[in-house]
Structures are given as C-alpha cells and as structure tokens.
Amino acid sequence: MSDIVEKTLTALPGLFLQHQAAGGSGVPRVSVSSRLGSLIRSITALTSKHEEEKLIQQELASLKATVAAPNTTLRLMKECMVRLIYCEMLGYESSFGYIHAIKLAQQGNLLEKRVGYLAVSLFLHENHELLLLLVNTVVKDLQSTNLVEVCMALTIVSQIFPREMIPAVLPLIEDKLQHSKEIIRRKAVQALYKFHLIAPNQVQHIHVKFRKALCDRDVGVMAASLHIYLRMIKENPSAYKDLTGSFVTILKQVVGGKLPVDFNYHSVPAPWLQIQLLRILGLLGKDDPRTSELTYDVLDESLRRAELSHNITYAILFECVHTIYTIYPKPELLEKAARCIGKFVLSPKINLKYLGLKALTYVIQQDPNLALQHQMTIIECLDHPDPIIKRETLELLYRITNAQNVSVIVQKMLEYLQQSKEEYIIISLVGKIAELAEKYAPGNEWFIQTMNAVFSVGGDVMHPDIPNNFLRLLAEGFDDENEDKQLRLYAVQSYLSLLEIENALYPQRFLQVMSWVLGEYSYLLDKGTPEIIITKLYRLLINKSTTSETKAWIMAAVTKLTSQTHSSKTVEKLIQEFSVSLDTCMRQHAFELKHLQENVELMKSLLPVDKSCEDLVVDASLSFLDGFVAEGLDQGAAPYKPHHQRQEEKLSQGKVLNFEPYGLSFSSTMSSSGCTGRQSPAGISLSSDVSGNSAETGQKETNSLKLEGVKKLWGKEGYLPKKENKAGSSPELQPIAQDSTLVENVDQMIMKKDQSQALHHSEEEAEKQRLASTLFVGLGSESAVSLLGKTDTVSHKFRRKSKINDTKNREVTSTHNINCSSFSPLSNAPYEDNDHLNSFQDKEDIGLKKCSLGSEFLESGLKSESLTELHLVENFSACSLSPPSLFEDNSMEIFHPPHPTLSSFANEISLTSSLLEELNEHVHSDLVELCNNEMLKVSSCKIWKDDCLLLVWLIVNKSSLELKNMNLEITSTENFKILEHPGFCFPVIEAESTKSIQHHVQMEKLFTEEDLSGCVKYKVEEDPYIQLEFSITLSLLDFIRPMKICTEDFGKLWLSFANDVKQNIKISDSQANLPFALKTLQQKLRLHIVDIIGNEGILACHLLPSVPCLLHLRAHEGMAALWFRSSCSTLPDYLLYQCQKVMEES
Amino acid sequence: MQFMLLFSRQGKLRLQKWYVPLSDKEKKKITRELVQTVLARKPKMCSFLEWRDLKIVYKRYASLYFCCAIEDQDNELITLEIIHRYVELLDKYFGSVCELDIIFNFEKAYFILDEFLLGGEVQETSKKNVLKAIEQADLLQEVSKHTETPRSVLEEIGLT
C-alpha cells in the first residue's frame, strides 16, 4: 500500500503544480461544509454558556457512540477526532476518544494517521499510560520506506514519548542521523534532544553522533544539534570547551551572510541560530579568560553587523550584550555593549525599554556607572503606567539599594505592593523589602514600621523565614545594648497602638509576631503594666478569626507576662474559660498556666525576663523521670513499649496462646502519663531512647513467658537488675505528668551563647554598597557623582549578627519552621518557643552539627550518671529500629566522640602518621594515589568511622610554585550522598605543601561497587586552569559496620524484620570449623558475631547510617545455610553476594 | 518554550500547544488566568508579562492573541519573532489568513506549528522548508482523497 502511495507521490509534484496554478490562492478554504463546520457554526450562534454546554454534551455523546461503533470507518474516525480536539479545546473532557486516536494513528492511511498522531499529541501528556500503546506504531513507522510516515513518527517522538520506552526506538532514530534527507536528520536530532531532556543517561553514548550532527552540511540539522549542545553545556561547560572554536566559526559564517538566503528573516541571517550560538558562547566563556579570548572578535562583529532596522536585530543585540557581560570582561567590548543598552533604555518602544531595564538589572553590579547615566529614565519608568515596567524598575533598584536610598526605594516597593493582587508578586516583593529593611534600615522607627507593612501586606502568603528572621534579629540584638532596647521598646509600642485600633484585622503571622514581642519585651515599658497587655492579648484570644496556631503563640505570651504580675483578673478569667475549652491544646495550656501560677518562684525561674537568647541543654535521656518510671513500675504499671516491640508481641500472640494473667488495669493509665511526660519542651522526638529503656526493663518482668513461648533460640543476659537499681536511685519526682515537664525545665542548664564571631559580609554586598552609594542618593537632591567616593558606614546596622553565611542561615531557618509548626498546635509547652529557636540556632555554631550534638547527648547522659556502656548499646539497638529521627543519627555517635578535623597538617608523612594517631580507633585504608602530574599529586584514604565513611583527600603541591584557586569537586551521583558541600576551594596552596579535605560519604542507593569521581582544578600564576580528574572505587563493604547487640536483642530484631533471604552455599573443609568461618565474615565483611550456639552462629551488622541486617549461619556437612533478615528489602541480597564471595575466596 | 496559546478577543481559545506535561486542570486554570490577564492589558503596554515564575510574551494580530510562555532567561524579543514567523507561515499557507481560517482548519494550523516548533524549540526557521514539509504531507491528502473518493461517496450514502 505504502509503496503505491510513494509512487504516486513521486508522480505528484507536477500534478500539484497544475492544481496550484488553477487554484490560484494555493490552498483552498475547504471543508466549511463539514460536520466540524456545522458544529462550530452552531456554537457561535449560541448566546449562553449553558446552551453551549448542552450542545457540546450532545455532540460528545454522539461522538462517543460513533467512535465506539464497530463499523465506523477510519475516514469517519478521522473526522470525529478533529471534532474531539475541538471539544477538548473548548474545555470539555473527551477521554473516551484517546484510545481511538491511538488506533487511528496505528491503522489509518497517511492522512488519517496524521490526524491520529496530532490528536495523540494534543490529548496525552508524556506520562500518560495510554502512550505505551503508541510505541509499536512509532517503531513501525520509523521503519517505513515512506518519508512522510517517518517524519510523522519522528515528530510525535520529539513531542511526547514515554521515557521507559526510549530503548525501543533509540537505535532506529540513531540510524536516521545518516539519512539522506535533511528533514529526517533534523527531526532525528530533535528527537534525540527530547530524549536528552527526559533521560540524559540513555543518550550518553551517542555524544559522538551529536558532533557529527553539528558538522552536518545542512543548516537545519546543525541548528537542531545546537539545542542539545546548549543544554549539555549549561550542565557542564568545562566538557565542551574544545568546541568553542567551531561555534565561533559557525557564528562568523552566519553573521557574514554565508548561509542560504532561505534562512534570512527580514534580511537578517538566521537570527535564531545566532542567538543560540551567542548563548552557548556565553556559557563557555564564563569565568574563563582563554575561551572568552576566542569569542571577542565575533562578538564585536555581531554588534557591528546588527544594524538597527527591525526588532529581530534588537533581539540579537540583547543576546550579544548578555554574552559580553557574562564572559570574561573585555573593556572595549563592555563599552560598546553599554552603548547598546543605552539604545534600549532610551527607545520609545516599550518592549525595548523593558529589555533595556532587564539588561541594566543584569549588568548593574558590574557597571554601576551605567545606572547613573540612565538615572532619569529609571525614575521615569518608576512611575510608568505599565506595571511590568514598574516592576522591572523596582527589581533594578533593589539591586542598587544602599543605606542612603533605602527608604525611598522601599517606599516605592510598598506602593507597588499595595496595588498588586497577584500572590506570586507579593511573595517575592515582600521578601525583598524585608531583606532590604534588615540590611539597610536607617532607624528603629523606620525598620519597625516597614516590617509592620510587610507583615500586614505579606500576611500569610509570605515566606515563613521573614517573621522568623525578624524575631531572631530582635532577640539577638546588635552590638549596642542600648540600641537593642530602643528597638524592642519601639516595637512593643507600635504593636500596642496597632492593637488599640478597633476591628482591625491583621494576618495571623503578624499576630504571632506581635504576641511574641509583647510577651518577651513589654517589660521595657515604664508605665504599661502587664495587665493592660494581657487584656489586649486576651481580646485577641477570644477573637473568632484567630487560628489555633496563633492562639498558642498568644497563650505563650500571656504565660510569660503572668510571671511578671502578681495576680491578674484577666488571667484568672482566661484560665477559667480555657480550662473547659474544646480545643485540647488550649485546655492544656490553660492548665499549665494555672499550675504555674500557684508556684510563683518556680514560674519566675522558668520564665526569666529577656533570656530568649540563651541556650539550654536538654537532658535527652530524660533521666530525671527514671524515679517516676520506677515508682510506676513498682506499682505494677506496664512499661512503655516502643512500636516495634508491640508489633512483635502482636506477632507472637498470633502464634501462641497467652497463659499469663492480664496485667493490672492501672498499667495503661500509667504508661500514658509517661507519654505525656515525655513530650517535653524539647519537642523533637528524642523519646525513643528512654522508651527503649523502660520498655525493656519491664518487658522482662511481665512478658518473659510469652517470649519463651515463641521458639526461644537464644540465651539471656542478666543486666536487668542493674538497670532497675539505676532507675530507683534517681531523685524522687512527683508523679504528675505536667509537673514533671516543669521539673525538666528547671533541670535544664542554661549557657551563655558565644557571640564573638565576626561579622560576615559577602563580597557581593560590599560591591552592592559601593555601587549604590554612587547612585540615587536622595534621588537627585545632591549631585550623585560627588558621592562616588563616599563609603557608607551606617549601613548594616540592622544586619543580624551573622555567625554563618547565608546558605547556612537558610538551613537553620528551615529548622525553625519545623520547630514552629510542631510547637504550635501540638506541643505542650508554648512558653518555650524562644528556647526552641535557640536550641536550634545553637546547632549552626557547631561545625559538624550532628557529631557535636551527639556528644552533647553523651554529656547529658553522663550527667545523669546512670548510663553504662551496656545501657548505651542497648539504646542503640532500640534506636536503630525506630523510624529515622534526629536522635537516631546521633545515637551512633554516643560511643564515638567526634575527632578533630585534619586540615592542619603540614606534609604528607606527618599527616599520615597523625592520621593514624588521630584515628587509631578507626580502621582505615592505606593512602592510595589517585592522580598525579608534575605539579601536584592527589591521594586519598578511606576511614571507616563507625558512623560514616570518611574520605580524606590529600593534595600535595610538589612544585616550587604556588597553586592558586585550587578547587576540588566531587561529581555528584545518585549513588552517594556527600554530607558536606561536594566542592572545596583553597585560595592558595604554597609550594611543597599538603592540604587535606575530608568528606563524609553516605550511600544513597545500594550497589556492590561504584566509582566516586571528581576533579581538581588549579591555576599557576595567571595561566588558565589546569584540571586533573580522579576516581576512587567504593564498595558496599565500606558502608557496612558491625552492630554490637546481644543475643536477646538479636532475637527481638529478628522477629521484627520482614525481608529475608536464604541461601545454601558450599564451604571448604577449612571453614567447616564454624568459628573460623565466622571469623572470616567478621574480618572481611565487618559483621559482629553475636553468639555461637552449637553449629549455629548469629551475626549482625548495619548499613550506614542505620539499616540493620542480621545473619543466621548454620554449618552442616560442608554446606552453610545463610539466612539474612533486614528491614531493607534489597540489602540481604547484596550482603549474600558479598558473603559468597568471601567464603569462596578463603 | 513552555506552551503556546491562541485566543480571540472574546477570550475563546483557538489553539493550545503544551510543551510541558501538566494536568488538564492546571492547563485550564493557566489558560483562564492568562486570557484574563492578557485581555485586561492596554494596547500600548509592553508585550511581556511576568506571570508566576514564567515570562509571557504575547502579541495581537487582528482579533487573535498569540501568547507564549518562556522561562526567565529566554530572550523575549526572539519569542516575539517566533510568533511573527508563525503568523507569516499561516498567512502564506492560507493566503492572507484570518481568524476563521484558524477556527475551521485548526488541525492545519497545528500541523504548521509542529513543523515550525518541535518540543518547544524552533525546529526550522526557513519559511520555505516549513511550507515544503507541509505541502508534502498535504499532497498525500490530495492523493488519498483522490483514490478514496468512490468509497467515501458510498460511505456517505450508507450513512445518511
């Protein structure tokens, strides 16, 4: 059939020409009388939306019947599809037709197939399941001898194709790259581009062919390949530097008009191609003087050739300017580019003006003078009637804000904010205002007022960091104590006056900020007694529009204030009212307040004035509760059981009858009160530890029989009495849950925070200020130029005492968020919110947060003096079972206090020896040389720390020259996770010296062996970067650690794991000796031998960070039966493989 | 390019092409919002819009609005020219195109678009080449019409 069609096709051009000559206007306006036509006409005739809906529903119903009817011809089907597309476009769902669209593409003749493919591309998206049914059709059409069919198949592939089916068509498409027709080659390249977008790994191997496409004799094919290159270069510019020359040559040819005239657009040669090339060159030349050098000429020529005649030349100019400012700067070109920007900015055409502003925004940091030149235009644009222009101007101003112009700029931004309703704009603008206000506020009053505006407008859509940062800034204060007080006082006063206004509605976030500030700082007011403020807060509290989250904040504030008064009627009333509230949280807060109020001394010590910034140490082990727990247990209460234990029991109960009498009914209430006690202000789920303790203690008492009922394989260890003693010896505590929470607070040690860290200014900011001081000061009141030299000293008044750089900041604030959300409706202790903040902030001071947190826990553990090694081990086993929590990570650290970093070693030899010294507790590999050249050597060593795999890289400068800008970068892969930033930079490495870097590596995806690769880049004097690549092989075993548990815990864990793998393997005679075989496993795989009983052995290990795996080995007549169990489904398989390997080797 | 929409001054959608996978609900929402925003703009205003995190480039030809969504770092002006080139192609194909051509022959408008833009990127910038590809496929249409005429007539009779 298709053969016939093709023959006819070849005969046709002549026929067509005749037809065209006769037809005159080319394509006749056909098929108006079709069914689609009548449908469209009847729709346009309708007057109401309702009628339209009725008509379309009718139409759809009849279409549904038609497409489903068995005798519908494909021709009719094609017609139906067109109508369906139309209905879909009008917004009516017609999914019943999707499958028929696929069928049409599959079965129809060319013309029907074309409509079928079109319908598929319009109806489905690339993740649609029906798309799989199209794959066969595509494969068939790709193999067709008919060009048009191949074209259609390639077109659909480039639009939507299921990612997982790429292998099915990839070879066919690769073949098409050699096709004789350029249209096929072009479409094939485009299809590969699509594949590269959705599954880059699958087309990695054909990168060579992309190069061929780039050199294709047809311009269209070459242009299509640029899409792929642009994408790839964006991802990894360094890999394609060698192509710079080719791109430059191509661009030169294009600019020089060497392409066929067909590609001209309004007599400009191939503008799309030019722009694509300019972008690529920009990416390649960025921060790379040598590559940039190659491009200067052609950029200059592009600028010159682009005569301003048409929009399209502006488009090219814009891209040119962008590229010139992106690559390594060349003054001469910059000057020309600047002139070009001027043309944009001064153009009367609004589109060009917009782009001019956009370009200015982009270059303003490099070229402040430019903004100065266009001062007046910028000011005009600020009041432009088109909001888009206005917004772009604000964006520009935002970048040149400094201490002197901040109030004007923020004022303008606020004005704009008040007019805009779109959420997206509000969020971004509010964020910018808050940032500027924090950085450059000229005074307390202004700052608070601006932030008030931000909170009122930004309300509940703004980023939660904004209120968090604001509160933190208030709390941490600045260097001047007096100044701090003033600011806080002003904030309090301003909020009081805001609350004075009747019927004013504020966003919830604003109310939260207000209540925190009032609770914390209203003591600064001379005259205002707490009573007045409490009354105001009370009014907010009973307001219906206040959410329960906000109520918790307000309640916390009231509680703080109550500690400063003697007695308050409002508080009494409040307690009374909320003690019967239906909201459990509020009721609890009310009760807490009531109890606190009864003990004024306690309350004062609990809620000290102005101590929000001080740290507290949390007794994570909750050891002070031991007495309480012991007392409960003495009275016959059931111990708390962690989740896994309860499940395990359920399992065992399923199998065996329980002959034990049921426990006292009292037990359940006791354990539940234990629970409330544990939800301490520490908030975070630190509980698993303690729950583990008490549970296991008790379990042995009451449930031992049950455990024996289950086929009891393992012996028992008698550490139970020891533990009970411990619990008994703890200080006595009142057995009331709420009180115990309070006692814990008292128990918390308060430490002064280290505030000595230096201020951190990023270079960028310094730059910003320098620029800004040259511009717009007072907006024209003074001559701006005269201010050029002025440095601005007042700024940064409101800069928070940044102890950390911005990225960390963000990290921390995000923890704040978690903290706040967990605090509000759920937490039991609202008055501790500030302390939460601080305990989290504290983390940022610690370099390796987790490690030191761990040691803190250790400290607190020691304080309670009741934890022995054994105890800890047991905790650990309990923890490793619980779902991931903060504590879980840390629990591992408990046995192994962190080691100091290794960065200060002078040379390799001493370094290795000190490595040994420092880490003699840790097993480590030998130092392996990874790569080497005449200047430099990189070697590495694996340190198998108990909690992680530490990779230490040693970089030795062998030469007598300084190496500069030394960068070490690890390529990120899906298999590994590097806990630190994967890159590292040494500004300078002196001659003949050694530097070391270390990375903590974690496994993300299970594997047997994988390479971790990376590269070092450095500079010698002013020469370009030299790059050395290296890779190191990591194996699964690098991430396996022994799990030291006792037999009994092994038994419990064994039952709780669902994934198991069994395998019999042959063992040699030497291994018939079981202990010997086990020793092998212990040494080679780092398994911990838990116990040996007869001819059975049990071993345990865990995969970092904490995926346990257990092994049961039974030796029997030259065979070893291995039985793995783990909480992870794939780990047993991998370990089995390793075991087999090891056993075979030995 | 993320998507392209064609709609009339009355806000009726005439053509839609999505280059990013989105749910139908989202598509409808985006279309509704954009049509509203664009129609509300005054004629002298800038052809570019910041919308969510995207840049919208639109241009009005007679009663039809052509509207493209691009990413922030893309070149707005060249997008404007993409629209213009598409209109030129339509114009050449239909012979001084008007809205009715696109309404009644929207599938043809789609075919042209697919030859010009593929997967959100410009595929072929030469006007001649695009039209050649379209004509080639159209010729088949003529052929198949020709060969199938007898059958289709019978069909029509059988059906009506």
Automatic annotation (TrEMBL), chain A:
Region of interest called Disordered, as start-end residue ranges on this chain: 670-702
Keyword Protein transport: yes
Localization: Endomembrane system
Name assigned to this protein: Adaptor related protein complex 4 subunit epsilon 1
GO BP, one annotated term: vesicle-mediated transport
Source organism, top-level taxon: Eukaryota
SMART domains, per database record: AP4E_app_platf (SM01356)
Alphabetical list of InterPro entries matching this protein: Adaptor_Complx_Large_Subunit, AP4_complex_esu, AP4E1_C, ARM-like, ARM-type_fold, Clathrin/coatomer_adapt-like_N
Ranges of Polar residues composition bias in the record: 685-702
Membrane topology recorded in Swiss-Prot or TrEMBL: Peripheral membrane protein
Gene coding for it: AP4E1
The keyword Transport is annotated on this UniProt entry: yes
TrEMBL record, chain B:
Protein's GO biological process: intracellular protein transport
Highest taxon above the source species: Eukaryota
GO MF entry, a single one: clathrin adaptor activity
Membrane topology annotation: Peripheral membrane protein
Domain (AP complex mu/sigma subunit): residue spans on this chain: 1-140
Compartment annotation: Cytoplasmic vesicle membrane; Golgi apparatus; Membrane, Clathrin-coated pit
Gene3D superfamilies to which the protein is assigned, alphabetical: 3.30.450.60
Keywords: Coated pit, Cytoplasmic vesicle, Golgi apparatus, Membrane, Protein transport, Transport
Principal location: membrane
GO CC annotations, alphabetized: AP-1 adaptor complex; clathrin-coated pit
PANTHER family found in the cross-reference section: ADAPTOR COMPLEXES SMALL SUBUNIT FAMILY (PTHR11753)
Function: Subunit of clathrin-associated adaptor protein complex 1 that plays a role in protein sorting in the late-Golgi/trans-Golgi network (TGN) and/or endosomes. The AP complexes mediate both the recruitment of clathrin to membranes and the recognition of sorting signals within the cytosolic tails of transmembrane cargo molecules.
Family according to the record: Belongs to the adaptor complexes small subunit family.
Binding partners and assembly: Adaptor protein complex 1 (AP-1) is a heterotetramer composed of two large adaptins (gamma-type subunit AP1G1 and beta-type subunit AP1B1), a medium adaptin (mu-type subunit AP1M1 or AP1M2) and a small adaptin (sigma-type subunit AP1S1 or AP1S2 or AP1S3). Binds to MUC1.
Protein's recorded name: AP complex subunit sigma
Organism: Sarcophilus harrisii (Tasmanian devil)
